[in-house]
C-alpha cells in the first residue's frame, strides 16, 4: 500500500508505470501476508516488484511500449513472472519502455517519455526507462528490465542504481517479447548488488520452454557477498581496464568519477591491469546490422491477424497488413525493420549479415583474450550522464552511441552490470549520477555481485 500511495502521488509526473491494477496487487500482498503467517517465507515474499512491460503477465496489459499491442492482454505468464509469483513477490504494475525495447531514452514509447527522477528535464535512459525511474524514485522495491544492447545498464547509470545483465541464457526468455533473440536477456534493476543477487535467485534457472536457456544447476547469487576480510576484501582480484573505454567519446566529467571509483577499488585490494578490446569500435555497426535483422524477423508476427492492432478500414488482405503495420509501429521500429529486411535480402546477405556475424565472433574473442589477464573488466557504463529530453531524438546515430560501452558484452553473451559510482556536474550545474560498469566472464555473476557489493 505504501508503494501504491507513492505511485499515486508521483507517477503522474514521472510516467514510470503504464499499467496499474491495485486490486490485483493488493490481493497478491494479502496472499504474501498469509504465507508469512504460515511461516512459508521465501526471500522475496511480500516484496513489491515493478515489471517491464515486455513481460507477458496473465490478465495484465502487455504492450511492449507500442501502439501495436496497446490493447493486448497477455493470456499467459512469462517464465520470470511465474518465478516471482512462486516466490510470493508482489507485482506492482507494468513499466514504460521504448517501443519494442528500441531506444536509449524511453522517448520512442507510444505512452510518452519518462522523467529522470534526478532532474525532470532529462531522460532516464532506455529502453528500460520506466523500471529505472521507478527504482530511482522509490516507486518499487526493485524492478525487472531487459538488455539487448545496454537497456539495463545505461538507465542504471543515468538514474544511479544497480542493474545486471546476466550471461546470455541464464534467465529464460519465455514470455518476454522478442526484439533481437540472440542478444535479449532479462535482469534485475535494484538499489544494491545484494538486492540484485536476491532477484537473480528468483529469475535465473533452466527453463525448457526457451531453447537457449542454459541447463545448469540452480545457484545462490548471494554466496560471494559476505567476505571475511574487512580491510582488503578484494585482495588478489585482477581488474582489467580496456584502453578503448577511456578514449574520445567519453565525457571528461564521467571519466573523472570512474577513475575515482577505480582508485577506491585499489584500496579494497584490487590489482589494476591494462587491457585492450581492439574491436570495440566495430560493436555498434555490427549490432545495428544484427539486431535489426533479428527484429525484422521477430516483428513479422504483428500482421493484424491474430492479435495486435488492426487497421479499421482496408480493401484486401495485403492492404490490411500494410495499414495495420503502418499505423501500429512507430518511426524507430520502422527504421529497424527496413534496415533488417535490407541486410537480409538476397545479394546483400553476405556483404552485411554474414560479415557482421564474423566480426561478432572477433568481438567475443577479444574478451576471451582479456579474461586471460584479469578477473573482471571495469569502465564507464555510458559515455555521458543523463541528457535532456529531445536532445538526441532527431539524431539516431548520436542516440546509438549511448551503448558504445555496453553493446559488445551482448554480442559476446557476457554478463555486465552498472553500479552507482558517484556524481558529475552537468554544464548547467546539476549533479547527476554516473555508473561504473563491471563486466565478468561467463557465469561469473556471483563474483561480479560481490565486487559491486564491496564498493557499496
Ligand atoms: N539502445 C539500444 C537499441 O536501441 C539497446 C536497446 C536494448 O538494450 N533493448 O537497440
Automatic annotation (TrEMBL):
One of its GO terms (molecular function) is transferase activity. Belongs to the amidase family. GatA subfamily. It is an enzyme of class 6 (ligase). The keyword Transcription does not apply. GO terms for biological process: translation. PROSITE patterns: AMIDASES (PS00571). Keywords: ATP-binding, Ligase, Nucleotide-binding, Protein biosynthesis, Transferase. Heterotrimer of A, B and C subunits. Gene3D superfamilies: Amidase signature (AS) domain. This is Glutamyl-tRNA(Gln) amidotransferase subunit A. Allows the formation of correctly charged Gln-tRNA(Gln) through the transamidation of misacylated Glu-tRNA(Gln) in organisms which lack glutaminyl-tRNA synthetase. The reaction takes place in the presence of glutamine and ATP through an activated gamma-phospho-Glu-tRNA(Gln). PANTHER family: GLUTAMYL-TRNA(GLN) AMIDOTRANSFERASE SUBUNIT A (PTHR11895:SF151), TRANSAMIDASE (PTHR11895). Its EC number is 6.3.5.7. HAMAP family: GatA. The keyword Repressor does not apply. It comes from Methylotenera versatilis (strain 301). It catalyses: L-glutamyl-tRNA(Gln) + L-glutamine + ATP + H2O = L-glutaminyl-tRNA(Gln) + L-glutamate + ADP + phosphate + H(+). GO terms for cellular component: glutamyl-tRNA(Gln) amidotransferase complex. InterPro entries: Amidase, Amidase_CS, Amidase_dom, AS_sf, GatA. The active site is at 52 (charge relay system), 127 (charge relay system), 151 (acyl-ester intermediate). NCBIfam families: gatA (TIGR00132). Residues 1-449 form the Amidase domain.
Amino acid at each position: 500500500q505504501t508503494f501504491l500511495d507513492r505511485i499515486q502521488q508521483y507517477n503522474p509526473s514521472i510516467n514510470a508505470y503504464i499499467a496499474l491494477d491495485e486490486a490485483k496487487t493488493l490481493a497478491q500482498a494479502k496472499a504474501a501476508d498469509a504465507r508469512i503467517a504460515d511461516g512459508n517465507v521465501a526471500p522475496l515474499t511480500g516484496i513489491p516488484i515493478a515489471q517491464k512491460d515486455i513481460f507477458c503477465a496473465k490478465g495484465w496489459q502487455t504492450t511492449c511500449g507500442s501502439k501495436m499491442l496497446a490493447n493486448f492482454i497477455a493470456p499467459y505468464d512469462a517464465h520470470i513472472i511465474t518465478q516471482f509469483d512462486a516466490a510470493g513477490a508482489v507485482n506492482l504494475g507494468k513499466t514504460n519502455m521504448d517501443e519494442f525495447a528500441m531506444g536509449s531514452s524511453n522517448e520512442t514509447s507510444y505512452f510518452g517519455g519518462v522523467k529522470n527522477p534526478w532532474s525532470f528535464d532529462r531522460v532516464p535512459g532506455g529502453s528500460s526507462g520506466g523500471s529505472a525511474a521507478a527504482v530511482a524514485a522509490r516507486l518499487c522495491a526493485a524492478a525487472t528490465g531487459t538488455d539487448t544492447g545496454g537497456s539495463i545498464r545505461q538507465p542504471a547509470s543515468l538514474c544511479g542504481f544497480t542493474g545486471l545483465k546476466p550471461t546470455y541464457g541464464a534467465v529464460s526468455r519465455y514470455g518476454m517479447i522478442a526484439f533481437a533473440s540472440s542478444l535479449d536477456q532479462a535482469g534485475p534493476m535494484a538499489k544494491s548488488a545484494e538486492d540484485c543477487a536476491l532477484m537473480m535467485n528468483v529469475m535465473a534457472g533452466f527453463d525448457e520452454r526457451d531453447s537457449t536457456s542454459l541447463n545448469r544447476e540452480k545457484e545462490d547469487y548471494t554466496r560471494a557477498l559476505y567476505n571475511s576480510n574487512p580491510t582488503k576484501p578484494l585482495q588478489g582480484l585482477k581488474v582489467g581496464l580496456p584502453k578503448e573505454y577511456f578514449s574520445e567519446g567519453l565525457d571528461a566529467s564521467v571519466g573523472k568519477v570512474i577513475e575515482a571509483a577505480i582508485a577506491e577499488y585499489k584500496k579494497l585490494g584490487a590489482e589494476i591491469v591494462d587491457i585492450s578490446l581492439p574491436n570495440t569500435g566495430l560493436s555498434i555497426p555490427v549490432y545495428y546490422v544484427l539486431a535489426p535483422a533479428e527484429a525484422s524477423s521477430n516483428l513479422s508476427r504483428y500482421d493484424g491477424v491474430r492479435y495486435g492492432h488492426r487497421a479499421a478500414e482496408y480493401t484486401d488482405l495485403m492492404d490490411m497488413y500494410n495499414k495495420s503495420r503502418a499505423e501500429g509501429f512507430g518511426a524507430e521500429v520502422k527504421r529497424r525493420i527496413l534496415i533488417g529486411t535490407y541486410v537480409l535480402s538476397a545479394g546483400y546477405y553476405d556483404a552485411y549479415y554474414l560479415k557482421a556475424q564474423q566480426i561478432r565472433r572477433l568481438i567475443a574473442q577479444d574478451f576471451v583474450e582479456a579474461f586471460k589477464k584479469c578477473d573482471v573488466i571495469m569502465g564507464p557504463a555510458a559515455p555521458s550522464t543523463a541528457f535532456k529530453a529531445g536532445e538526441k531524438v532527431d539524431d539516431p546515430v548520436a542516440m546509438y552511441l549511448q551503448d558504445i560501452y555496453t553493446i559488445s558484452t551482448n554480442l559476446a553473451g557476457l554478463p555486465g552490470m552498472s553500479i552507482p559510482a558517484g556524481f558529475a556536474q552537468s554544464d548547467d550545474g546539476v549533479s547527476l549520477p554516473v555508473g561504473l560498469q563491471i563486466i565478468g566472464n561467463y557465469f561469473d555473476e556471483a563474483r561480479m555481485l560481490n565486487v559491486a557489493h564491496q564498493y557499496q
